[in-house]
Write a structure and sequence with these properties.
The chain is α/β, with parallel strands linked by helices. The chain contains 10 helices and 9 strands. Strand 1, helix 1 and strand 2 form a beta-alpha-beta unit. The longest helix is centred in the last third of the chain and has 14 residues. The radius of gyration is 21 Å and the shape is globular.
Length: 278
């Protein structure tokens, strides 16, 4: 029996996103010539992009237009360009609300694709007070309309698995836990903590467009260079929905518990869009 080909659909390097990293992580483990990637057109995507062109291969096709311009027809055209084999193909979608902002359109696309389909949900949660299962109301509504039209979904934790299985026991056999994985950066693992702090400090001071007042404060306070400081933080897109402001609540609690050390909280990242930059 011939092995099926898997075509991953979503963002892919060099688009800056954890989803892109995850797709890269999956493709690195996939058999050669048995996978391809359908991704968004880098010139029309409308979100922060990286200038790194290293990810381009003949197995990656950047053909989906802007985030609001996707459809079953677009996906079929992309598969033809990648040399899809009819009847022996699996589509694996990477889902996050920012890249598929129209949930009804996303579900309609899945419904109109007569091809085996898997969806990985990068932003499902299980601690919301909105529903008894712990899913957010919007998340529950999306899954309710989507689950009949896919063969499987994957999630990143047991908590999310039980939330989905509790909300939709009739589809529990479609839900699988597949961990996000840990990115391998051997050159970083060999760096001492002191050197890592120095590199981060120098990067923020000399290679970013931080406001001059912020850079002067970093330099003066020696936030990363003072070995007595305990630094906690978050990196990545800055989005109010992530509630990373709770980082400062944790900092204040730690200060009450550890009074002989300075606890510093740092958030480093970019806003996803112009509205969040204001």
């Amino acid at each position: 029996m011939e092995m099926a080909s898997i075509y991953f659909v979503g963002t892919y390097s060099p688009i800056m996103c954890g989803i892109a990293d995850y797709t890269s992580y999956l493709t690195r483990k996939s058999p050669s010539r048995r996978w391809g990637v359908l991704s968004f057109d880098l010139e029309k995507y409308g979100a922060p992009l990286s200038g790194n062109d290293g990810a381009h291969t003949n197995q990656v096709w950047y053909g989906i237009p802007g985030r609001h311009d996707f459809s079953a027809t677009v996906i079929r055209d992309g598969l033809k360009r990648l040399g899809m084999e009819d009847g022996n193909t699996l589509l694996w979608f990477q889902h996050e609300n920012g890249i598929w902002p129209d949930s009804q359109k996303f579900v309609a696309m899945l419904e109109n694709l007569d091809i085996p389909k898997v969806v990985t949900f990068h932003t499902l949660h299980f601690q919301s007070p909105d529903t008894p299962s712990g899913l957010g109301r919007n998340q529950r509504d999306l899954l309710q309309s989507l689950l009949p039209h896919v063969d499987a979904i994957t999630v990143f934790s047991d908590g999310v698995y039980y939330a989905v299985a509790t909300a939709f026991p009739e589809y529990s056999d479609k839900v699988y836990v597949l961990k996000h994985g840990v990115h391998s950066h051997p050159e970083v693992s060999r760096v001492s903590r002191k050197e890592a702090r120095e590199k981060l400090n120098d990067f923020l001071l000399y290679e970013t467009d931080l406001a001059q007042a912020v850079k002067e404060s970093l330099h003066k306070q020696r936030i990363f260079l003072n070995p007595g400081n305990v630094v906690i933080g978050q990196t990545g897109f800055l989005d109010p929905n992530k509630r990373t402001d709770l980082l400062y609540v944790v900092r204040d609690s730690l200060r009450q518990m550890i009074r002989d050390r300075e606890i510093v909280a740092v958030r480093i990242g970019k806003s996803k869009d112009s509205v969040q930059r204001t």
